[in-house]
Design goal:
Layout: H1 4-25, H2 29-43, H3 50-69, H4 73-78, H5 80-105, H6 110-121, H7 125-135, H8 141-165, H9 170-197, H10 204-222, H11 228-237, H12 239-244, H13 246-270, H14 274-279, H15 281-305, H16 310-320, H17 325-336, H18 342-367, H19 372-391
Helix pairs in contact: 1-2, 1-13, 2-13, 3-7, 3-11, 3-13, 5-6, 5-8, 5-15, 6-8, 6-17, 6-18, 7-8, 8-16, 9-10, 9-11, 10-11, 15-16, 15-18, 16-18, 17-18
Length: 392
C-alpha cells in the first residue's frame, strides 16, 4: 500500500519545482506545472491515485468557476459584439477545420472526428485565467474582454458536446431544471447569505459555494456530462457580486492556486506519453497548426475590425488559440464512452496541451500588452483617497 503522505509530498514537491522554475524563467506557472507533469510521468514514475484525481477535479472546477466569476457583466454587455464575435469565430472555424482533418484526411469515424473538432475548438479558461491573474490583466478591460470571449467559445463547446453526444434522459432533465433554478436565484441569495453569515472563522460562504459546485457537478455527472460545465455558468451568475467582494475572490483564488490547481496542471502533463508523441509527431504537428491557423483566421480579423491595437489583437488571438480544460475533458469523454481509441486520445490530448503551451509562451514573450502604468496609476489614485480624507 502506498504511503499517502509521501505521494502528496511528491506531487507538491513537483508543484513547488514548477513554481520555482516559473519564477526563474518568467513563464506562466500553469505551463511550468504542465511541463513538470510531463517529466514526472515519463521519467519519475508519477501516477495518479483516486484522491489525486479528486483534488485535480476540484482544482479544475474551482478554476473554471473563478474564470466565470471574472467575466465582468458590464464589459460583457458594453463590449457584447466584440466578445460574441471573437468567441463564436474562435469556436466555429477550429471545430470545422479539426473535424475535416480528422474525418477526411485521417479517416476517423464520424463520432471520433466530432470529438476531435470539439476538443481542438476550445480555448483554455484555466490557462487564460491563470495568465490573466499572474499578469494583472484580469483587472483591465482587455483581459475582461478576453475572458468574456473565452466564455462564448467554451459555451459553444458545451452546446456541441451536449447536442452531439448527451443522453436526454431523466437525469438530464433534472440537471437542466436544477441548474436553471440555481442560476436564477443564486445572485440575490448569495448576497443575502454572505451579509448574514460571511466573514466568519468558519468560512461559511466558501462552504456554501463548494456545496453548490459539488451539487451541480454531481447532477452533471449523472446526466453523462462534466462537472466543470455548470461551474462556469455558476461563476458567471455570481460575477457581478464577486467583483464587489474582492476579499472573497482573493481567498478562493489563494486556496485554488496554492493547493488545488497544481494537481490539475500536473495531471494534465501526465497525460502526455513521449513515445506515443514521437510515433504520431506528424499528425500532432499538423493538427496543432490547423487549430492555431483556424483560430488566427477567425480571431485576428475580428480584432482588427473592432479596432484593437495590433499588439493587443495578436495577444488576444494567441490566448484564444490555447486549449486545456475543456479540450482534455472532451477527449476523456470520447475515450470513456468508446468514441475514440487510446491512440486517438493521446493525439488529441497532446495537441491540446501543446496548444496551451506554445501560443501562451509566444504571447507572453512577444505580445504582452504593457498595462502596468495604468494599473499603477489606478493604485496610486486609490491610495491617495484616504490621505485626502484625513487632510480634510
Amino acid at each position: 500500500m502506498e504511503n499517502m503522505w509521501l505521494v502528496a509530498a511528491e506531487w507538491l514537491g513537483l508543484a513547488l519545482a514548477g513554481g520555482l522554475l516559473a519564477g526563474w524563467t518568467g513563464i506562466s506557472i500553469s505551463l511550468m506545472e504542465i511541463a513538470v507533469g510531463v517529466i514526472g510521468g515519463n521519467f519519475l514514475g508519477l501516477h495518479t491515485t483516486p484522491w489525486v484525481d479528486f483534488l485535480a477535479g476540484v482544482g479544475s472546477i474551482i478554476l473554471t468557476f473563478l474564470a466565470g466569476a471574472e467575466v465582468d457583466p458590464v464589459v460583457l454587455r458594453s463590449r457584447f459584439k466584440e466578445s460574441v464575435a471573437i468567441g463564436l469565430l474562435s469556436f466555429a472555424l477550429p471545430f470545422g477545420g479539426a473535424f475535416a482533418y480528422a474525418y477526411y484526411a485521417l479517416g476517423w469515424t464520424l463520432p471520433a472526428a466530432e470529438i476531435a473538432g470539439i476538443a481542438l475548438s476550445t480555448t483554455s479558461v484555466a490557462v487564460v485565467y491563470a495568465v490573466m491573474v499572474e499578469t494583472g490583466l484580469n483587472e483591465s478591460e482587455l483581459g475582461r474582454i478576453i475572458l468574456a470571449a473565452c466564455f462564448i467559445t467554451d459555451l459553444g463547446t458545451v452546446v456541441a458536446l451536449g447536442v452531439l453526444f448527451a443522453n436526454f434522459n431523466a437525469w438530464m432533465v433534472l440537471f437542466i431544471a436544477v441548474t436553471a433554478v440555481v442560476l436564477a436565484i443564486v445572485p440575490r441569495f448569495s448576497r443575502l447569505f454572505i451579509q448574514h453569515y460571511g466573514n466568519r472563522v468558519s468560512q461559511l460562504e466558501i462552504k456554501y459555494l463548494f456545496f453548490l459546485l459539488f451539487l451541480l457537478g454531481g447532477l452533471a455527472s449523472m446526466a453523462n456530462s462534466e462537472a466543470v460545465l455548470p461551474a462556469y455558468l455558476l461563476g458567471l451568475a455570481v460575477a457581478g457580486f464577486f467583483l464587489e467582494e474582492k476579499n472573497l475572490t482573493l481567498r478562493m483564488r489563494t486556496m485554488a492556486f496554492a493547493f488545488l490547481t497544481p494537481f490539475y496542471f500536473l495531471k494534465a502533463g501526465l497525460f502526455v506519453s513521449l513515445p506515443a508523441v514521437i510515433t504520431s509527431a506528424g499528425i500532432i504537428i499538423i493538427a496543432l497548426l490547423i487549430k492555431i491557423a483556424t483560430k488566427f483566421i477567425g480571431v485576428w480579423p475580428a480584432t482588427r475590425f473592432f479596432k484593437f491595437e495590433p499588439r493587443e489583437g495578436m495577444y488576444t488571438t494567441l490566448l484564444m488559440s490555447t486549449g486545456l480544460t475543456f479540450g482534455t475533458i472532451s477527449s476523456l469523454f470520447g475515450l470513456n464512452h468508446g468514441y475514440i481509441s487510446q491512440a486517438q486520445y493521446t493525439i488529441l490530448v497532446t495537441v491540446v496541451i501543446l496548444s496551451a503551451v506554445v501560443p501562451t509562451m509566444i504571447a507572453q514573450a512577444f505580445f504582452r500588452p504593457d498595462l502596468a502604468p495604468a494599473v499603477k496609476q489606478e493604485k496610486r489614485r486609490h491610495a491617495l483617497i484616504p490621505q485626502k480624507e484625513e487632510g480634510n
